[in-house]
Amino acid sequence: MIPHSRPTLTEEDALRVAAVVRSGQLAQAAEVAAFEREVALRLGVARAAATSSGTAALELALRVLGVGAGDEVVIPTYVCDALHHAVTRVGARPVLADACAETLSVESQEVKRRLSRRTRCAIVPHAFGLAAGLESFAALGIPVIEDCAQALGAIDDGRPVGARGDLAVCSFYATKMLTTGEGGMVAGPAGLIARVQELRDYDERADLEPRFNYRLTEFGAALGRSQLLRLDQFIARRRAIAARYRARLGGLGGLPPDAAGGRHVYHRFVLDLGRPVGPAIEALARRGVAARRPVFRPAHQALGPAGYAVADRLWETHLSLPCYPGLGDAEVDLVAAALVEALAP
Ligand SMILES: Cc1ncc(COP(=O)(O)O)c(C=O)c1O
Questions:
Q1: Ligand 1 mean position, distance from CA 253 (Å)
Q2: Which listed residue, of 5, 9, 195, 281, carries a Cα 20 to 30 Å from 70's Cα?
């Protein structure tokens, strides 16, 4: 079976993790601090704070922006549930926005439509590796958190994703653009990031302001640093895979946009089949290929409200094919051939 996703690990990654284990310093220290500096540099922001997950990063980003009980936060419905959970964890109410068929994230006009007196912030993901175009959100007059969980390394109108929002969050889960096993990061201005660093650690604080242990380990950071050295290689390979899929699947239509200007890093290779994807996923599985819906389920479908026509349609017709640096050309060809066969009349 060709898996849908897989981390890209080398002997050098293993050696760097082993060196930390041998050092005996396992909890947050110099490796974490170095990883934070390197990610901040890569994103072009002042400072970054490592966390135990992307979800923890989202929660702390909301908290340091002052989001709390009685506030509303606009988030897309067509995204992973982490966004909804982070907003409710700080006591705020998630207000769902419909999907944008072009960026697969949200449009600023759709966010604008959902604003109220209580809106404190919006979270805008760069969905599946495609830069969402943050520029148009500036006019909304509310803080924007850029969710870069799936798009580390993408370029949004000449600047790295993560550099334009009031804050940016990353995830380093096993199958993300680079991994620490589990982990995340909040990046942005020095003052806000210092607050994140303060809130991720409850130990020896004079006050009892709500805090939690959201720290990253030293061996996670060592793995992340080792992976970060190869991020450009990872992105180049993902783009080569996407180009190969595009060449072999051009006849199908519904392909993702090309990587022009660096805007796509293909964390996922998502096609719009224009028909329900269930039968194609089953047919691919019978041919030894694990394909998926790129979003498990839009949040509004779990909550009940109707009125999210674009998200409903994309969820029905979107297919995510295997796309990761360790996937070989022969495997790409096999997946593409299996899909063409599966869709044949
Ligand atoms: C867009 C987006 N944001 C946030 C997260 C949460 O990251 P984590 O799984 O590290 O908590 C994910 C995870 O898949 C994600 O896809």
A1: 29
A2: 195
